[in-house]
Amino acid sequence: MPDTTTASVAAHSPAIETRSLDEILYPALEPYQTEHLDVGEGQRLYVEQSGNPHGTPVVFVHGGPGGGTSPWQRRFFDPAVYRIILFDQRGCGRSTPHAADGADLSVIDTARLVADMECIRERLGVERWLVFGGSWGSTLSLAYAEAHPEHVIGLVLRGIFLLRRWELDWYYNRGGAQNLFPDLFDAYESVLREHAPDELAGDHIETFHRLLNGSDPEVALRAALAWSAWEARTSHLLIPDEPVQASQQLAEHRRFALAFARIENHFFANAGFMRENQLIDEADRLGGIPGVIVQGRYDVVCPPRSAWELHRAWPQSQLTFVPNAGHGSNEAGIAAGLIEATDAFRALR
Length: 349
Hints:
Elements: E1 11-12, H1 21-24, E2 33-40, E3 43-51, E4 56-61, E5 82-87, H2 110-123, E6 129-134, H3 136-147, E7 152-158, H4 165-172, H5 177-180, H6 182-195, H7 204-212, H8 217-233, H9 247-269, H10 278-281, E8 291-296, H11 304-313, E9 317-322, H12 332-344
Parallel strand pairs: 1-9, 4-5, 4-6, 6-7, 7-8, 8-9
Antiparallel strand pairs: 2-3, 3-5
């Protein structure tokens, strides 16, 4: 368990990680239970459990919003020790209805997602659990923990995103990120130059919102692919080669992109359905909850400033800056830091 008995504003950087991702993660495993949980308003959430049914409960909170879960994400946890709970948030992954099918986004917001997590916890008979989330998953994890601290053993967070205006402008508008990836930002803006040239000087989030929810499905798809590609291509310190996709994979990619972009943009166009700086202002509610923050030093999607400010506002946290990583949880240094954290929390119940 991390030593969180004293407040600190220090952070550390581990040694450069040389192992492969497959060497770092726990072995692949299959769930022992899956279900679709009815949480009301026509929403049915995909929920799965794997690992030790009698172990320490841990809930994996995926990113996006709208990203969904993947089987490899079970591998951040020792399956002999943890009762591993993964779920797909409203509108994405294997939850229904799916945002790519035109699901009503008016019933998807932060308060409802927090309530959904409580519904899952109660359904599974969990009193307290470790909450694990990265990127938007860190946002939702913090919102949940600040609303229900009595049910949180600890927090393991990665790529801190506090959904403040400057963070949105930095990445989605003509803020700092475009200066680091001008070619990729140009590709991101290309759909706006074609379909909304008079709005290029305005708020890209609002313009994409109109295109993603307009009457032309082809324009919506192009906007979704541009939005999703910008994020995917800038999420790693070293940009990975893009795979050649077969027709079925391409169809799945388009479906993912539509849900991901529609839901994510829906949240960002509505300021995350939170007050500006809410998660920092209410960080005192985390008092007594130990936590580990793993942050890529060169994270362009969620700049390290947010991790530092959260750490300063939450004395029980430990902050690790991974020296050779960007945003992705599948970067070796990030994955190693997360495994180290979950291993340290194994004894908590």
